[in-house]
Design goal:
Blueprint: H1 5-22, H2 24-38, H3 45-59, H4 62-74, H5 79-113
Length: 114
């Protein structure tokens, strides 16, 4: 059975909201770092999300895959662009990367269909 990535992002978002309340300084610091890292500069936001997706696949972090797939769909990437990023992730991570690239493709499909 496929993972429900829409539900996964909703569930994780609820839990991180609790963490924002319980450990606000840590979460504020993390949010500031994320905002600074993803802000367009020499690289645009889409390129930075591609990098994050590749790292998420290589590190086998399904929630990370879900959030970056969602962000990339919102940025209007094509399936072909997305798949090329997955190809680089597979190249860099081998067989395990291929397994998580398949998860990432499922996440893209779910967010695209939404």
């Amino acid at each position: 059975m496929a993972t429900d990535y829409l539900q996964m992002t909703a569930d994780i978002s609820r839990q991180t909201a609790v963490l924002r309340k319980d450990i606000p300084d840590t979460m504020s610091g993390f949010s500031a770092m994320a905002g600074a890292a993803c802000k367009a500069g020499a690289l645009d936001a889409k390129t930075k999300e591609y990098i994050a997706l590749g790292i998420a696949v290589a590190l086998r972090c399904e929630p990370c895959i879900a959030f970056h797939a969602k962000a990339l769909v919102k940025l209007g990437v094509t399936r072909a662009e997305y798949e090329e990023v997955l190809g680089v992730a597979v190249y860099m991570d081998g067989g395990p990367g291929l397994m998580y690239a398949a998860h990432a493709l499922e996440a893209f499909d779910q967010f695209s269909a939404k």
